[in-house]
Write a structure and sequence with these properties.
By secondary structure, the chain is mostly helical.
Length: 141
Amino acid sequence: MKTRFSSLVALKKSAMERSEQALQNANKDLNSAKEALELSYNSLNDLQLPKTGKMADMLASRVLVNSQRGDIKHNQDWINFAQNQVNQAKEKLKSTMVEHEKFKYLEVEEIKKIMKEIKLQEAKDLDEIALMTYARKNNNS
């Protein structure tokens, strides 16, 4: 049954679905960031540091370690950013769900009101028919 809230309910539902999609994408980004951080830690652990040898080799390994630490820091920042995005997407989804439920409730209440009016009108019509039938029956007798 169409009500004045039907189009708003559909609009709010599509907004809620977009928010759900945004949350899924934010979660994917967060998982990617976590995987990248894990790979960075594994790469740092896999580095073989020279214990003896030329100074150039020692400096090169130090540069590699510092570079890997930079990657780890970058990935930690990425995780923090992605976590913030997930939190914002959750809040947005929560607000769009509330909005959708509000208008859905209003639509249901409007339908109940219309159904009540229809039933009342049907009762009035039946009463009128009954009175007309009764009056006709009494006039014929």
